[in-house]
Design a protein that fits this description.
mainly beta; six-stranded mixed β-sheet; rod-shaped
Amino acid sequence: MRRLLLATALAMAGPAAAQSLFTEDSWRGLIADNKAHRVGDVLTVQVFESSSATSSIETGTRRNNRVQAELSHRGSAVAQTTIAAGGEFDGGGRTQRTHRLLTTVTVTVREVLPGGLLRIAGIQSTKVNEELQQVTLEGLVRAIDISDGNVVQSTRISEARITYVGEGDVSERSRRPWWRRLADALGL
Protein backbone atom coordinates (compact mmCIF):
# COMPACT_ATOMS: atom_id res chain seq x y z
CA MET A 1 0.00 0.00 0.00
CA ARG A 2 2.81 2.38 0.87
CA ARG A 3 4.50 1.71 -2.41
CA LEU A 4 1.29 2.39 -4.28
CA LEU A 5 0.85 5.76 -2.51
CA LEU A 6 4.48 6.71 -3.15
CA ALA A 7 4.23 5.77 -6.85
CA THR A 8 1.01 7.77 -7.20
CA ALA A 9 2.55 10.85 -5.52
CA LEU A 10 5.62 10.69 -7.75
CA ALA A 11 3.51 10.32 -10.89
CA MET A 12 1.43 13.37 -9.97
CA ALA A 13 4.50 15.52 -9.17
CA GLY A 14 5.72 15.49 -12.78
CA PRO A 15 9.26 15.25 -14.08
CA ALA A 16 12.10 16.31 -11.82
CA ALA A 17 13.98 19.50 -12.81
CA ALA A 18 17.67 19.92 -12.15
CA GLN A 19 19.00 23.28 -11.03
CA SER A 20 22.48 24.55 -11.64
CA LEU A 21 24.77 25.71 -8.84
CA PHE A 22 25.91 28.75 -10.86
CA THR A 23 24.30 31.29 -13.17
CA GLU A 24 25.68 31.15 -16.69
CA ASP A 25 25.46 34.93 -17.14
CA SER A 26 27.77 35.64 -14.22
CA TRP A 27 30.02 32.57 -14.21
CA ARG A 28 33.75 33.17 -14.72
CA GLY A 29 36.36 30.49 -14.99
CA LEU A 30 38.97 30.10 -12.26
CA ILE A 31 41.72 31.40 -14.53
CA ALA A 32 39.64 34.10 -16.27
CA ASP A 33 40.70 37.74 -15.93
CA ASN A 34 38.70 40.29 -13.98
CA LYS A 35 37.94 42.66 -16.85
CA ALA A 36 34.59 44.44 -16.81
CA HIS A 37 32.27 42.76 -19.30
CA ARG A 38 28.67 42.95 -18.04
CA VAL A 39 26.22 45.50 -16.65
CA GLY A 40 27.11 46.52 -13.11
CA ASP A 41 30.84 45.71 -13.38
CA VAL A 42 33.23 48.46 -12.31
CA LEU A 43 36.11 49.74 -14.41
CA THR A 44 38.95 52.11 -13.56
CA VAL A 45 39.61 54.93 -16.03
CA GLN A 46 42.91 56.79 -16.02
CA VAL A 47 42.14 60.27 -17.35
CA PHE A 48 45.10 61.88 -19.11
CA GLU A 49 43.58 64.73 -21.12
CA SER A 50 45.62 67.62 -22.42
CA SER A 51 44.57 70.25 -24.95
CA SER A 52 46.20 73.40 -26.22
CA ALA A 53 44.98 76.08 -28.62
CA THR A 54 46.57 79.26 -29.90
CA SER A 55 44.93 81.93 -32.02
CA SER A 56 46.70 84.99 -33.38
CA ILE A 57 45.58 87.87 -35.60
CA GLU A 58 47.23 91.00 -36.94
CA THR A 59 45.37 93.80 -38.68
CA GLY A 60 46.64 96.89 -40.44
CA THR A 61 44.53 99.50 -42.25
CA ARG A 62 45.62 102.81 -43.78
CA ARG A 63 43.50 105.36 -45.60
CA ASN A 64 44.32 108.74 -47.12
CA ASN A 65 41.84 110.94 -49.01
CA ARG A 66 42.56 114.37 -50.45
CA VAL A 67 40.32 116.76 -52.33
CA GLN A 68 41.72 120.00 -53.73
CA ALA A 69 39.84 122.83 -55.43
CA GLU A 70 41.13 126.04 -57.00
CA LEU A 71 39.17 129.02 -58.33
CA SER A 72 40.96 131.29 -60.77
CA HIS A 73 39.99 134.51 -62.58
CA ARG A 74 41.99 135.77 -65.60
CA GLY A 75 44.92 133.53 -64.96
CA SER A 76 45.40 134.32 -61.32
CA ALA A 77 44.20 132.25 -58.41
CA VAL A 78 41.34 133.85 -56.54
CA ALA A 79 40.67 131.12 -53.98
CA GLN A 80 42.25 127.82 -53.14
CA THR A 81 41.05 125.19 -50.70
CA THR A 82 42.18 121.73 -49.77
CA ILE A 83 40.33 119.09 -47.79
CA ALA A 84 42.29 116.09 -46.55
CA ALA A 85 41.21 113.14 -44.49
CA GLY A 86 43.26 110.22 -43.39
CA GLY A 87 43.36 107.49 -40.86
CA GLU A 88 45.41 104.59 -39.65
CA PHE A 89 44.54 101.55 -37.63
CA ASP A 90 46.88 98.92 -36.35
CA GLY A 91 45.44 96.19 -34.23
CA GLY A 92 46.08 92.63 -33.25
CA GLY A 93 45.43 90.03 -30.69
CA ARG A 94 46.58 86.71 -29.37
CA THR A 95 44.76 84.07 -27.41
CA GLN A 96 46.37 81.05 -25.87
CA ARG A 97 44.66 78.39 -23.79
CA THR A 98 45.99 75.19 -22.28
CA HIS A 99 44.05 72.58 -20.31
CA ARG A 100 45.33 69.51 -18.53
CA LEU A 101 43.34 67.00 -16.48
CA LEU A 102 45.02 64.07 -14.75
CA THR A 103 42.88 61.87 -12.50
CA THR A 104 41.62 58.33 -11.95
CA VAL A 105 37.87 57.64 -11.92
CA THR A 106 36.07 54.37 -11.24
CA VAL A 107 32.98 53.98 -13.43
CA THR A 108 30.24 51.39 -13.89
CA VAL A 109 29.22 49.48 -17.00
CA ARG A 110 25.71 50.74 -17.73
CA GLU A 111 24.97 48.78 -20.91
CA VAL A 112 26.55 46.10 -23.10
CA LEU A 113 25.98 46.98 -26.76
CA PRO A 114 26.17 44.67 -29.78
CA GLY A 115 29.75 43.91 -30.74
CA GLY A 116 30.87 43.94 -27.11
CA LEU A 117 31.00 47.74 -26.68
CA LEU A 118 30.49 48.79 -23.07
CA ARG A 119 28.62 52.02 -22.25
CA ILE A 120 30.25 53.37 -19.09
CA ALA A 121 29.44 56.24 -16.75
CA GLY A 122 30.54 57.46 -13.35
CA ILE A 123 31.01 60.45 -11.06
CA GLN A 124 33.83 61.16 -8.62
CA SER A 125 33.44 63.91 -6.03
CA THR A 126 36.17 65.22 -3.77
CA LYS A 127 35.87 67.97 -1.17
CA VAL A 128 39.03 69.70 0.04
CA ASN A 129 38.97 72.86 2.17
CA GLU A 130 35.28 73.45 1.45
CA GLU A 131 35.96 73.21 -2.32
CA LEU A 132 33.90 70.53 -4.09
CA GLN A 133 35.63 69.07 -7.17
CA GLN A 134 33.56 66.76 -9.36
CA VAL A 135 34.59 64.68 -12.38
CA THR A 136 31.85 63.15 -14.54
CA LEU A 137 32.79 60.63 -17.22
CA GLU A 138 30.67 58.87 -19.87
CA GLY A 139 31.50 57.02 -23.08
CA LEU A 140 31.96 53.75 -24.95
CA VAL A 141 34.80 51.28 -24.38
CA ARG A 142 35.90 48.25 -26.41
CA ALA A 143 36.63 45.20 -24.27
CA ILE A 144 39.98 44.80 -26.04
CA ASP A 145 41.10 48.24 -24.71
CA ILE A 146 40.68 47.17 -21.08
CA SER A 147 43.97 46.03 -19.53
CA ASP A 148 44.40 42.87 -17.45
CA GLY A 149 44.21 45.06 -14.34
CA ASN A 150 40.70 46.26 -15.37
CA VAL A 151 41.99 49.73 -16.34
CA VAL A 152 41.36 51.75 -19.51
CA GLN A 153 42.99 55.01 -20.66
CA SER A 154 40.63 57.93 -21.33
CA THR A 155 42.16 58.29 -24.80
CA ARG A 156 40.66 54.87 -25.67
CA ILE A 157 37.08 55.91 -24.83
CA SER A 158 34.82 56.61 -27.79
CA GLU A 159 32.26 59.41 -27.54
CA ALA A 160 33.90 60.46 -24.27
CA ARG A 161 32.26 63.22 -22.26
CA ILE A 162 34.53 64.28 -19.42
CA THR A 163 33.40 67.16 -17.24
CA TYR A 164 35.45 68.70 -14.44
CA VAL A 165 33.65 71.23 -12.24
CA GLY A 166 34.81 73.01 -9.11
CA GLU A 167 32.53 74.75 -6.62
CA GLY A 168 33.55 76.93 -3.69
CA ASP A 169 35.34 80.19 -2.85
CA VAL A 170 38.36 79.67 -5.12
CA SER A 171 36.21 78.71 -8.12
CA GLU A 172 33.81 81.57 -7.43
CA ARG A 173 36.61 84.14 -7.28
CA SER A 174 38.11 82.93 -10.57
CA ARG A 175 34.87 83.61 -12.48
CA ARG A 176 34.40 87.03 -14.06
CA PRO A 177 31.60 89.10 -12.47
CA TRP A 178 28.29 89.47 -14.33
CA TRP A 179 28.79 93.18 -14.96
CA ARG A 180 32.16 92.53 -16.65
CA ARG A 181 30.62 89.86 -18.91
CA LEU A 182 27.82 92.35 -19.82
CA ALA A 183 30.34 95.10 -20.59
CA ASP A 184 32.31 92.70 -22.80
CA ALA A 185 29.14 91.65 -24.63
CA LEU A 186 28.36 95.32 -25.32
CA GLY A 187 31.91 95.94 -26.48
CA LEU A 188 32.75 98.36 -23.67
